[in-house]
């Protein structure tokens, strides 16, 4: 636990060259074709971003960040991986998109950014890297202009309690927050890590997220749960990267969620 940040930063720095070259991110087509990697429900729920200042916390390579810029936002991305931020800056330059990218841990974002924003965006798979959400929510509140909002889309914690094969039996403890230490030589893009493949992750329930935002003085406008996800979470699922679902006729469970919380 004492070294979680150092361990995770090394892990993500090692992932960066693999991710940049992967078919999963397909950086070349992102630069060439002007495409967006945002999910349709995200664009619909956030609404018009034209002329609005948006910061993407835990932005990795910045493809989501730059996708918001292509929709008209003035964007900043922040990530603790210096290797990821170097790539994000290079991709932005190759795309001709004005964007600011800053290297910092999310808990240090207020001082590192020195600005406030209309919109905070944080995307899928971000919260598992944070040991606690109280400070995270306080950072979000401090970064928002009056009337601004945080928008979060995340993988739902409920599937984490189910068995890996069928997704039908409760096997794991929903209230086990971690830390969980993983030794994974492959990333989610399929590439193999030859070093720094240890990571430390944490689980957060829906109540943890909502309560932390409320305690920071933000007003939760909505919490939407979704019956699809972006990878084959269980072998019985079918679909593609736009959405994997359980077989038709199977009782549905929440697989992702999205939330908006506004500043006063």
Automatic annotation (TrEMBL):
Pfam families in UniProt: Methyltransf_12
Top-rank taxon, per record: Bacteria
InterPro entries named among the record's database cross-references: Methyltransf_12, SAM-dependent_MTases_sf
Keywords: Methyltransferase, Transferase
Any GO MF annotation of the entry: methyltransferase activity
Keyword Nuclease in record: no
GO biological process, one term: methylation
Keyword Nucleotide-binding: no
Entry-linked Gene3D superfamilies: Vaccinia Virus protein VP39 (3.40.50.150)
Record-annotated Methyltransferase type domain positions: 56-150
Protein name from the UniProt record: Class I SAM-dependent methyltransferase
Organism: Nonomuraea diastatica
């Amino acid at each position: 636990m004492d070294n979680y940040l150092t361990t995770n930063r090394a892990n993500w720095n090692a992932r960066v060259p693999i991710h940049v070259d992967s078919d999963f991110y397909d950086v070349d087509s992102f630069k060439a074709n002007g495409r967006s990697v945002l999910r349709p429900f995200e664009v619909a729920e956030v609404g018009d971003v034209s002329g609005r200042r948006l910061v993407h916390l835990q932005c990795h390579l910045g493809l989501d960040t730059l996708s918001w810029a292509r929709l008209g936002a003035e964007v900043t991305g922040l990530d603790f991986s210096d290797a990821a931020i170097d790539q994000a800056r290079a991709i932005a330059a190759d795309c001709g998109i004005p964007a600011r990218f800053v290297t910092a841990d999310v808990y240090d974002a207020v001082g590192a950014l020195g600005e406030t924003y209309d919109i905070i965006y944080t995307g899928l798979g971000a919260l598992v890297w944070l040991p606690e959400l109280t400070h995270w929510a306080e950072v979000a509140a401090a970064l928002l202009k009056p009337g601004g909002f945080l928008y979060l889309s995340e993988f739902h914690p409920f599937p984490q309690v189910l068995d890996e094969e069928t997704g039908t039996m409760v096997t794991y403890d929903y209230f086990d927050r971690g830390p969980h230490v993983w030794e994974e030589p492959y990333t989610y893009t399929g590439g193999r890590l030859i070093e720094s493949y240890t990571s430390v992750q944490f689980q957060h329930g829906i109540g943890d997220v909502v309560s932390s935002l409320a305690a920071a003085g933000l007003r939760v406008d909505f919490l939407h749960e979704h019956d699809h996800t972006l990878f084959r979470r269980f072998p019985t699922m079918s679909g593609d990267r736009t959405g994997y679902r359980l077989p038709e006729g199977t009782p549905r469970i929440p697989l992702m969620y999205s939330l908006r919380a506004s500043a006063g």
